[in-house]
Design goal:
88 residues, mainly alpha, Methane Monooxygenase Hydroxylase, Chain G, domain 1
């Protein structure tokens, strides 16, 4: 399996940075003793952002496998499936 293309990962990095900021917000909400609903809502947003980043990474890997001149080998196929299911 090929390394991640850093150009393709710019949106993923941006999403992860936003999630990092959101997670900091969750910590502040807890430290301030805020309402449970506010904390859980923000935590859910962080979770969705992390899931989307993970799926974008797997998608990039699948795209690279599919456009590879050698085609998709069984080892890469199994690895991509395992990574996908890890996120599910």
């Amino acid at each position: 399996m090929a390394a991640l293309n850093s150009d393709d990962m710019t949106p993923v990095i941006n999403r992860l940075r936003r999630a990092q900021g959101q997670l900091g917000g969750v910590i502040r909400l807890i430290e301030e003793g805020r309402d449970c609903k506010d904390v859980v809502t923000q935590l859910a947003a962080v979770n969705r952002a992390l899931d989307r980043a993970g799926f974008a990474i797997v998608s990039s890997g699948l795209r690279d496998c599919l456009t590879s001149p050698e085609g998709v080998n069984e080892e890469d196929k199994a690895l991509m499936e395992k990574l996908f299911l890890t996120l599910a």
